[in-house]
Amino acid sequence: MVAPSATLSTLNRADGSASYQCPSTGSNILGSVNAPVELPGRRDALRPEDATIEVFVKPGTAPAGVGERYVEGILKTLLGRVILGREKGYPRRGVVITLAIIGGENVSRGDPYLILLPALLHTALLALLSASVPLSMTFSATVLAVDAAGQILREPSAEDAATAQSLHVLAFSSKGHLLLNESQGAFDLDTWEKVRQRASAICHGTQLVSADGDVAMAEDVDGRPLEGSLREMVEDQVYRDYNWQINAA
Amino acid sequence: MSSPLVLLPGDEIPSEYLPSTSSAPLRLGAGLRLLSQPHPTTKSSSTPSHVLTATQAGILSTDNKRNAVSILSSPHRRYIPTANDLVIAQIHHSSPDYFHCMITPQAPHAVLGQLSFEGATKKTRPMLKQGDLVYARVLSTGLGAGAEVELACVNPATGRAEPGGLGPLNGGMVFDVSTGMAARLMKASSSSTGEHQQEGVAGLVVLDELGKKLEKAGGFEIAIGRNGKVWVDCSNSGDAAVKATVAIGRCLTTLDQHELTAADQKKLVSRVLRELKIEV
Amino acid sequence: MNKEAPLSIAERDFILDALREDVRLDGRAADELRPLKVTFGEEYGHVKVQLGRTSLVTRISAEVTKPHDDRPFDGLFTIAMELTAMGSPAWDNGRQGDLETYVTNVLDRVIRHSNALDTESLCIVKGVSCWSVRADVHITDYDGNLIDAACMGIMAGLQHFRRPDAVVKDGQVIVYGLDERVPVALNITHKPLAVTFHSFDEGKRVILDATRKEEQAAEADVVFGLNNAGDLCFMSKFSGSPVDAMVFVNKTSVALDKVKEINGIIDKALQADLAKRAKKGMAEESRAENDR
Fold first, then answer.
1. Residues A177 and A185: beta-carbon distance below 8 Å
2. What's the number of domains chain B is made of?
3. Please, which residues 3-62 of chain A have a Cβ atom closer than 8 Å to chain C?
4. Subunits touching A (CB < 8 Å, at least 3 pairs)?
5. The domain spanning residue B120 has which CATH number?
6. ipTM of this model?
7. Same domain, B98 and B59
8. Burial class (CB in 10 A: 0-12, 13-18, 19+), A165
């Protein structure tokens, strides 16, 4: 499995940004974050002590539709759990996250959006880190398809996803909590448990899988955990930003 | 300094990295928070039952003298007002008691008292209009959600413009740099007065170099705001004023986009001055 | 909000003072473009334009659809540009501002109304099916001169794009996949580009390719749309203070030089990309042979 690649702080005007290349779907997503900013007309938010999070997903070659609004909702809920909207400078302000699919296949209308969701989540996270928005923790996510034979397929292509029995997107925090569980299609609980274990192995390696499982092989199949890849992308950027200081020391 | 420790949100700060020299309380800077959950690995009850975790990605920075610890995060981030920071603010409009100023775009205005200037009385206060610039200090960021940021161009305790230079900025030009670069420039310019103790504080020699080269032409005045603004005025340079200002601006913005070594910074200064045909 | 923060008096005055001495903040001459870089992505019609610190991504796509009833021989061509908070924090997501309306209108008139893309060639079956070509412009960084940069992106994209081949057999339209048949280039009739000038100091100073701050400090702007042959397909001066007629006369020749220069850069980038693709295609072919 080829690890995803990303570059942080690629844009000039936005406060934080990230360009993310997902190897399995071939999509290239550009994310930007502006925070904290004033949101005019939305000053009397429902929770004035907290920041308002806005997510906007822009497809590459089509007008935005229902699919985009649906993933925006998912992203907003998840990001709302990790963004510390009560830190200094953030209450009553907005965190505006814009994600544009600028390369690779589009999700055509009616197709499952779930296969792009992990890439969107990772782009949003990296852009938030690039903007130094306070977060309680980081996370990583993956998508798994279960085919008719019960085989679990990691990060399926659009064709695989269309023929799959069920699709599952799971996100785990850096502390191992299950942050997101979006499923689509027909499946039973045993299947879901298997999917969860496999997803956890992909995100964190095998150490978090319950001891009774026979999934020790998962690490060899899936290469290094996503968590580590994401950390490396951020570390690269930090070293680049503080090159002057590190060299001087 | 040993190899720097890079942290991501949620990472705990290992206690060996914290300053341990004094008994004074530890000061937490930006990007850190204290959680009072019990540490799962400590068994003895004598150790405090809370942990320090990062909330931003960056390098852990410790200051043993002040017993402070903070995280140096992305230099491209948006400026968040913090008490005692020096900023360059732009007047947006005024009301009977206050000037309403812009520190960062797309952010709420900060207020600056009409009398918060050195020696200002109802009769002698400066008459600032929309678009004027002031060099001010963040007095307070207020308590509670959405509180107003208050600025002052005077130290309320002494009634003087401390540190020097606070007040309206007349003429000149402002250049935008990243907040990280503004912090570095500030560090570099504040310690350069002590006469070369070391080559280039914070990895910057560009201001010293420009100062040396432009001295003959009349020198320049500079004010650096933590909000990523640098004000430059070369009005002493006579005919070369505009070109000298442009030269300084180009050096700063180039350096902000491309990290350069001390030798390359000197080359940059010479190159830009040559291109603008400024004689040194 | 949809509005950039206003300039300070110091910035406004300084930009003007400097221009009076023929100096621009980034050291350019009045008629000089910022460094321009045009690059192409993996798929056809994917262009990245970097003009100084303004950057954008254009994507061209095509699908089969039904032509309009009143124009049964014409295919469809749309330019979609939406300004998101990515390009500038001053822009609101999902809300159309004045700038967006204005720029979209100019792009439409320079490229679409001048018939740069021959829409008749997009017809498959009269009145039944045709190609609908769509150009999506994503502004990723905004530092002035949106119109010129977007024009470059769209024109480069249209020249780079290849649509799938489609044939009519027994009244049925068959669309072949990109790997089944060599895809078809679009029929470009001419290559119009926009060139925007800004005037200062009561029209005495006129500059090309203004940055965001220069735009804000300017009195008025003039947009020319023309092609390599010098055919003027668009000219506008929507707002601002009056500009002398001689400026229009003098600057059209400058604009023509710039159009040729930009089209040259685009052609070069297209050729380099084509060569790269040919090389890659050959490598893949030989690999396929080896597999056998």
1. no
2. 3
3. 11-15, 17, 26, 28, 30, 32, 34, 37-38, 40, 54, 56, 58, 60-62
4. B, C
5. 2.40.50.140
6. 0.90
7. no
8. middle
C89/A40 CB distance under 8 A: no
Domain edge (last residue) among B118, B136, B169: B169
Q: Do A13 and C134 touch (CB under 8 A)?
A: no
Query: Does residue B102 belong to any structural domain of this protein?
Result: yes
- Would you mind telling me the total number of residues written for chain A in this entry? 249
Say which residue the tokens 């990243």 belong to.
Answer: B178
Distance CA B107, CA C5 (A): 10
Cβ count near B64 (within 10 Å):
12
Q: Cβ contacts of residue B229 below 8 Å, gap of 6+?
A: B87, B88, B174, B175, B176, B177, B182
- Helix pair C146-160, C245-291: axis angle to 10 deg: 40
Structural domain includes residue B81 = no
| Residues B126 and B210 placed together within one structural domain of the fold | no
Q: Which of C165, C161, C166, C168 is nearest to C188 (CA)?
A: C161
> Which domains are seen in chain A, by residue range?
5-247 (3.30.230.70)
Does the domain made of C9-272 have the CATH classification 3.30.230.70? Answer: yes
* pTM passes above 0.80: yes
Q: Which two tokens stand for residue A113?
A: 């959006």
Which of B169, B198, B231 represents a domain boundary (last residue)?
Answer: B169
pLDDT of chain B along its 280 residues, tens only? 457 899 999 999 988 888 776 677 888 888 999 887 655 554 544 555 678 999 999 999 988 888 889 999 999 999 999 999 999 999 999 999 999 999 999 998 999 999 999 888 888 889 999 999 999 999 998 777 667 899 999 988 888 887 778 999 999 999 999 999 999 999 887 765 544 445 567 788 999 899 999 988 888 999 999 999 999 999 888 888 999 999 999 999 999 998 888 899 999 999 999 988 887 6
Write out the residue range of the structural domain in which residue B236 sits.
173-275
Same domain, B110 and B25: no
Q: Does C82 sit within 8 Å of A13, measured CB to CB?
A: no
* Phi, psi dihedral angles at B57 (to 5 degrees): -85, 135
CB distance C90–B276 less than 8 Å?
no
Structure tokens at A126: 């990296």
Q: Omega of the bond prior to C35 within 30 degrees of 0, cis?
A: no
Task: Tell me which of B11, B72, B80, B258 to substitute to probe the interface with A (most A C-beta atoms closer than 10 Å).
Answer: B80
Q: Hey, what are C103's tokens?
A: 């720029």
Would residue B78 count as lying in a domain? no
| Cis geometry, peptide bond prior to residue B163 (ω within 30 degrees of 0) | yes
Rounded to whole angstroms, how far apart are CA atoms A68 and A58? 7
Q: Token pair for residue C48? A: 């990245």
Judge if B94 and B15 occupy the same domain.
Answer: no
The pair phi, psi for residue B103, each rounded to 5°, is -100, -50
Give yes or no for C94 touching B (CB within 8 A): no
CATH number at residue B236: 3.30.1370.10
Query: Which C positions 85-124 lie with beta carbon below 8 A of chain A?
Result: 85-89, 93-94
Burial (CB count <10 Å: 0-12, 13-18, 19+), residue B158: exposed
Distance from CA of A64 to the nearest CA of C (A): 10
Shortest Cα distance, chain C CAs vs residue B2, angstroms: 37
Q: How far apart are CA B50 and CA A195, in angstroms?
A: 35
